[in-house]
Amino acid sequence: MLLDHGHPNALSYPICKVSEEASLVVKRIDAQMATQISLMQMALSSIPNMSVKESFTKKAAKTLTKYLKDMIGGES
Q1: N or C, which end of the chain has less CB nearby within 10 Å?
Q2: Do residues 49 and 28 make contact, with C-beta atoms less than 8 angstroms apart?
Q3: Contact 21, 8 (CB under 8 A)
Q4: What is the pLDDT tens value at each position of the chain, 76 positions in all?
């Protein structure tokens, strides 16, 4: 796992460092997954459907657009 996530010298790490670094990698992966899930939920919420008020889907779409712009440094 460490080799796949930016630790080319992981095979020479002491056991305690392997454990610490693996924990950090897992936390980073979990944070990335949480972000992806959140964005997916926002995207799905922005799709118009009969059971949700149009104003809600427009607000969700606007929020999603803002988040995506912020993620890419404010560029369109």
Answers
A1: C
A2: no
A3: no
A4: 899 999 999 999 999 999 999 999 999 999 999 889 888 988 888 888 888 888 888 888 888 888 888 888 876 5
How many Å apart are CA 65 and CA 43, to the nearest integer?
9
- Quick one: which of 42, 49, 48, 45 has its CA closest to 64? 42
Distance CA 55, CA 25 (A): 40
The model carries a pTM of 0.67
> So where are the chain's domains?
3-71
> Maximum CA pair distance of the chain?
58
